[in-house]
Specification:
Strand content: 15-25%
Structural class: alpha+beta
Largest sheet: 8 strands, antiparallel
Strand order of the largest sheet: 13-14-15-16-17-18-19-20
Helix content: 25-40%
Shape: globular
Number of domains: 3
CATH topology of the largest domain: Beta-lactamase
Mean pLDDT: 89
Number of strands: 20
Low-confidence stretches: 1-48
Number of helices: 13
């Protein structure tokens, strides 16, 4: 019976996490993971495997990370805790490559969108004090704001406002190089048409959290950073966390940010003025700071029960206030992830088990999410999806030539109608460059299959009748070749 229950749990997770719209590529990946879980279920002597901790956990995590460390795809901190007890915390790779400074538990990282739960918590504190009504028209807080009679703070927190994402604006590449006040940031999107009627659907938009930070300043009379420091960081003793007051501020212990270059190299991440991320991704912290914050939130030491219920209710499928609510490793989780040039972060909280997994990196690659999920599986004694081979040779020149070209993804892609240009370098490895973006190396993982290093997403080339690639497939998205 126990084996059947574990098998049933695996099947349910497969359905919930995969979704009907998963691509053939993702289906193959999830099927492999499902088969591993089925095998484990059939062999399992009991309902659940024993948790792994101590030296055994360290050895298993070390072994899992070795291919990523060897190929410069991860450097940072991995932390596993049960309750307030840290079961495992270790630094991997370098906080500063030039001076060979290793990562330590005290290393500070920019945490990108993992900042959003802090902004959401700040808003909920103001709700508790009667300063903000989640469902009142936004015009009460911001008189004269366009569509203010239709918009609410709830819409902003849950990404259901319809306000377009500032990150997708053609001018955003220039915007992010300059210092901005919140009023200046809001001016970029306040008068733009809504993408849909407020509350109609979910569409992730960083503009929502820029606007929430602006509301915090207007309501509290303090700057966003000062309010967080007074109401959250100092009371919870998050000594390593903060919001940079200006781009020139020196933050002791802050790692340097890097970006993948080519198939295995690194380069300095492009410059970013963090003021453009205020509210949606501007904070820095240590892994220990994040654990303390997450424990305070989930333990009811920061917000009251009503605020917690609102924060972790899926207002649209899987979306709470600043958090995603879903499942991983057979368990319900609250999680949040983030990426900004030079940085990537993932935090998973398995609330039924009281287990938190945090992965912070100073390399701009989306590998922190699969690392966190694999580390969680290792801790729970479950099988995990292995990493693809990262040691493959570049494709033969003739094979590479058949893939080189320009492809256009559809309107449903993360960046609608994005052009992606595939080129071959002097070493034979391929790279893909989005229009108005930086190139990312392509790591061969199979015939016509590659990993996009910066995003840690698989790209598959589909051959045409003439032998050249006719289209690319990235997850469920397709992009036909558009060059002659």
């Amino acid at each position: 019976m126990a084996r059947f229950l574990l098998l049933l749990s695996a099947l349910i997770d497969f359905i919930l996490e995969g979704g009907i719209m998963a691509s053939i590529l993702c289906f193959r990946k999830r099927t492999a993971a499902l088969l591993a879980l089925v095998a484990a279920a059939l062999a399992a002597p009991g309902i659940a495997a024993a948790a792994v901790a101590g030296p055994a956990l360290e050895q298993a995590v070390d072994a899992y990370l070795q291919p990523l460390l060897r190929t410069n795809n991860f450097a940072g901190i991995v932390l596993v805790a049960r309750g307030d007890e840290i079961l495992f915390q270790k630094g991997y790779g370098l906080a500063n490559v030039e001076h060979q400074v290793p990562h330590r538990p005290s290393t500070r990282f920019h945490i990108a969108s993992v900042s959003k739960p802090f902004t959401a918590a700040a808003i909920m504190l103001l709700v508790e004090r009667g300063r903000i009504d989640l469902h009142a028209p936004l015009s009460r807080l911001l008189p004269g704001f366009p569509n203010g009679e239709r918009l609410t703070v709830h819409h902003l927190l849950s990404h259901t406002s319809g306000i377009p994402n500032i990150n997708g604006f053609p001018e955003y590449d220039a915007i992010q190089y300059r210092e901005h006040s919140l009023e200046q940031l809001v001016a970029y999107f306040r008068d733009r048409p809504l993408g849909f009627a407020p509350g109609e659907r979910h569409e992730y938009s960083n503009s929502n959290y820029n606007l929430l930070a602006y509301i915090i300043e207007r309501v509290s009379g303090l700057s966003y950073g000062a309010f967080l420091r007074r109401e959250i960081l100092e009371p919870l003793r998050l000594a390593g966390a903060g919001h940079p007051s200006r781009a020139a501020e020196i933050v002791p212990g802050l790692a340097d940010g890097y970006a993948p270059e080519g198939a295995t190299g690194l380069e300095r991440a492009r410059y970013l003025d963090w003021s453009v991320k205020t509210g949606n991704g501007s904070l820095y912290a240590t892994a220990g700071d994040l654990l303390a914050f997450f424990r305070a939130v989930h333990g009811g030491r920061l917000l009251n029960p009503q605020s917690l219920a609102a924060s972790f209710t899926p207002h649209t499928p899987n979306v709470g206030y600043g958090w995603f609510v879903t499942r991983a490793n057979g368990r319900p989780i609250h999680h949040i992830n983030g990426r900004s040039p030079g940085w990537a972060a993932q935090a998973d909280h398995y609330f039924d088990d009281g287990v938190t997994v945090i992965v912070l990196s100073n390399i701009y690659a989306g590998v922190t999410t699969p690392i966190a999920r694999a580390v969680g599986a290792i801790h729970f004694g479950l099988p995990h999806e292995p990493l693809p081979s990262l040691a493959a040779e570049p494709p033969a020149p003739a094979a590479a030539a058949a893939l080189v070209g320009t492809y256009r993804l559809g309107a449903d892609y993360y960046v609608p109608n994005q052009l992606l240009t595939v080129a071959a370098g002097a070493d034979g490895h391929l790279s893909a460059t989005p229009d108005a973006g930086s190139p990312t190396g392509l790591i061969p993982i199979g015939p016509n299959r590659f990993l996009m290093r910066a995003f840690w997403m698989e790209m598959e080339f589909v051959p045409g009748a003439d032998g050249r690639a006719a289209e690319i497939r990235i997850e469920q998205f397709r992009g036909p070749r558009v060059d002659p």
